């Protein structure tokens, strides 16, 4: 398990460096700049959806899309709060608040109907390889907001809530989907 975790950390660092730039350069349905008049995007004004899933060697990146369903622009800057909730350590409601990726970020302004996203990178839970969290929902809090939304997600994730450098983490909000 130690080798897998060390390898995952190395793969995580390399993947983070390579995956953020292409996503930011993709077609831009959201505009990246500071908007003086746009308010902070709140959970109730966003539609959430799972996007593409990619990865290898047991570490996967799940794209989570955030689309504005409001009638005016709103902004997000930084990282969403993400809690994985599921069964682990004899509890059905085990909550794991994820750490943030070490990455730069900008203010993302979402016009009505436009989309931004963040990456949720995780180690797949494998039987016999440590403690797994059988995730059944994700709680997402947009950056700068206190309200949240709950998404159903059925995934086994290697639980590393006590790790110094876990292979499961959340990236910043980026424009585009």
Give the total of domains: 1
Taking all residues together, what is the mean pLDDT? 83
H/E element sequence = HEEEEEEEEEEEEEE
- Cα shape: elongated
Percent of residues in beta strands:
over 45%
Radius of gyration: 16 Å
User: Count of helical segments?
Assistant: 1
Low-confidence stretches: 1-36
Structural class: mainly beta
Helix fraction bin? 10-25%
Main beta sheet, described? 6 strands, mixed
Q: How many beta-strand elements?
A: 14
**Cα-to-Cα separation, first versus last residue:** 34 Å
What does this structure look like?
The protein has 177 residues and is mainly beta. The chain has one domain. Helix content is 14%, strand content 47%. The protein is built from one helix and 14 strands; from the N terminus they run αββββββββββββββ. It has one helix spanning 2-25, and strands at residues 31-32, 39-40, 46-56, 59-68, 74-77, 81-88, 91-97, 99-100, 107-110, 115-123, 132-141, 149-158, 169-170, 174-175. Strands 3, 4, 8, 10, 13 and 14 form a six-stranded mixed β-sheet that branches. It is elongated. The relative contact order is 0.27. Residues 1-36 have low confidence and may be disordered.
Characteristics of this structure?
177 residues, 14% helix, 14 strands, single chain, mainly beta, 1 helix, 47% strand, elongated
